[in-house]
Amino acid sequence: MKKKSTSQSAFFNLRVLIGSVLCLTGIFVAMLGMGGFSSVFAQRRGANSNQDAPGTQTPDVVRMVGPVRLDKDLRDLPWVAPKPEHEEQPLYRHPRPTQPPQTSSGYGTSGLAHVQSLLKNIWQPQPTMPGPLLTFEGHNNTCGCFPPDSDGDVGPNHYVEAVNESIKIFDKNGNTLSGPTSYNSFFAGLTGTPCANANDGDPFVLYDPVANRWLISDFAFPSFPGTSFYQCIGISQTPDPVAGGWFLYALQVDPANPTFLGDYPKFAMWNAGGSPAQNAYFLTMNLFSSNTTFNGVRVYALNRASMLAGGPANAIGFTLSAADVLLSYSFLAANQRTDSPPAGRNEMVLAINSSLNAGDPEILVHARFFHVDFVTPANSVFGVGPTHQPNAEITVNTFVNAAVSPGFNTNIVPQQGTTVKLDTVGDRMKVPVVYQNRAGVESLWATHENLLNYPNGPVAVRWYQFNVTGGVFPPIATQQQDWTNGNDGLWRWNSSIAVDPNGNTVIGYSTSNASAFPGIRYAGRLVTDPPNNLSQGEGTMFNGTASQTGSRWGDYSMTTVDTANGTDFWHVNEYLATTGTSWHTRIGKFNFVGGASPTPTATPAMCTWGAGAAMPSVGVREVGVYFPANGKFYAMGGRSADAAGSEFTHPFEYTPGTNTWATKAATYPDNLVNNMACGVLTDAGTPYIYCAGGSFVVTPTVTTGRVFRYNPVTDTISPVAAPWPAAGTTVLPGGFTVLSNKLYILGGFDTATNGGQGTNQIWEFTPSPAAWVQKPTVLPVPLGYIPTTTIGTLIYTGGGTDITAGALTDTTNSFVYNPAANTIGTIATIPRATGETRALNFCNRMYVMGGGRTAPNPSNEVDIYNPVSNTWSLGTPFVNPRRNFPTDTDGTNRIWLAAGYEPSAPAADMEIFNCPVSPCGASPTPTATPTATRTPTATPTATAAATATATATFTPTPTPTPIVVRPSPTPRPRPTSPPPRP
Fold this sequence. Notes:
The protein is mainly beta and about 1000 residues long. Helices cover about 5% and strands about 40% of the residues. It has two domains: about 15-590, 7 Propeller (Methylamine Dehydrogenase, Chain H); about 615-965, Kelch-type beta propeller (Neuraminidase).
């Protein structure tokens, strides 16, 4: 990323500063004397609280209607007219009189705002925010309603926009792909609910980057007040929101209180794994039974895994009464976008007060945890105690809701050419609350409006960063600011924040004043900028050309970061092209570089480690296998402990789309399933996971050469009548990899000879007909547990375990083997010694994944070898050091790892390296010529007698005829003598 200049130009006047401070002090004392902080102290001041124990609260479980499949292309849906619309009735926390259009003159710059201006802008940075890369027209007002409630999100190939009553889908150049599609058409299949024909807006769009799916929602009801209120939810069946199909669900707002409307519904995705898995779409809404009767807040956790699979789904809910929430409402759950939370981290929910009286200062952000358990719903917990009080109160700088007296009037934003003032909806947190995890430092980012210099204004955007590392709410904000762009005279409201994977921040918002039409702007800061300031300044996304004759504006906008490159930000908001109430929306893209969108580098910031779901059991010595035919990850063999009878008997299957593990029904043929060599091979057009060799913990000096294959599609295991000859009764496989539909085993561990020693043979297995060939080449040194992978037509290793008289020592041996030429040579040495782990081919690079047992190992280091330049570099480390764990990759976007010794005890946690867009690019494939020509030659027998001495480079010897071995399987004896436990 190109770093923008942060040079500053300003003046300093000591007399002005001293006078300003004295003025501010006087204002503060006067406010105390007038009781201006009454609402602050009326609100309960809670201390940090731990999460309530599971089973101590009483959630309710609501079975959602559906799923109903929508298998049509959205372009083929008929237009179904929405309900007749008009100006939306605003619903507020406290009963308010009907708000007339505010027509008083604009704000002044005296008093507190003037003091703030002097104090904050003694040094004013030169703005450097680039202009937009792209803007295009979104929806306009075709429903006769206002405001639009403009919302949208960006995915790898689409931008999906939602406004009241319809959705529209664009490509990322702004070309319309489908729509507008009314919600009455989209949700028509949900018959028997209001979703089928009584949709009413408050839309929400969410792109789920972990599952690469979409969520679209609005609320529906026949009438208000009434007795039938539902949230309508669509989950895309595929990444294609236009033609890929949808699963439709309907959720009753509060079955115990059927007269409650769920207003201002907002969603967030949270996928932290753990046990029970914290994996849900979280939904928050305000409850009303009439325009003036606030009944509380409803919070839901929706079973994300079931919804993504198109299965029956429950929602776990809590209702907080008006008394429970005191002065607050409009709760917002944190949304996981570019970074994954640690395993088991509970969802976090924020809110601010809606003051009882306009002008009351506020100083608190209310913070709660939501722990969900879909297996045992009664164990779900929200907040503290039976009334779900905040787990913490975070103290922030004083702010004032964007409203004035009389009657808490939020229609206060001036605009050019009219005395009609616009609505700020300025008494609540604005969507989204963004979660970020940068190298273990966890943060929440949020915005709301702050009315400066009450009652004169202007309204500023208040933004925060809260450090929540370790799942602990802080006592104060890490960063906060009232953004006024140096008190330039504009009012800023209708805000929305986004943060990219590097920690750079952008806020999009509406702007207006008495001499400017309502427009759309954005401001930002780089992670390296001074704290508490949007130092990159402001950019203009789009200038409106008219004023609105009605007050309702918003109610919200949306800013999101593009996970396809991690650098572009997208914002959607409203404007007026002609005076009246015929609103338009505009969609824009911008970044901190300007010009064309940057191309991701080979190691983009978007590739991050995050927690996956914990395995069904702790485990060690399993083999990880990615199965391309179904896109799932398998853990084969292994055991749960270094104790008798602990071997696993069934494969474990991980489904990335739902972040869930399953124990399969297929049963292993025996219990010699530790330290196997496994890979995906195809026989007669059908792919299988083939596994060879193995040991069991009771007598680890006894091994097997048995080969079996597993079909994940049919969940069946069958024997293969070609045991690995090198196993004998004591040898375990060393490094293993697949090349050209053949499984190669390099080296091994002879668990009995001389107290335990490494081997140097190289073996090749062909599935059809099933046969083993001992290769004429041997390793330069005997090794076991070798990290090994295939890149192009060559096999590479980095590290491996020296085994001498039973002692295991990590090494830095690094080789390249050419099976076609039967040559082996050295490559650049891996920077650290390791073994007892895997090497993976990710983007035509060798990734050596942690591992090792010689102190300071085991490690979480990822070492990356470039076979073209013959160089090593460091990758992003995973979190927990481990060895002997299952790991594999799809080669382009994800690496999975789980379990293993951490560092000495079996573990179950999972970590996932996720690149929403592949960083591979056009990586060159290494040629079939190793960098050295060391070619030891094996004795052509089926024993482990061949050895090699590490000598200088030499000329390859003639290749002997390989041995083809096709023995019949025989039963393996089970000795009882106590051995070491590899």
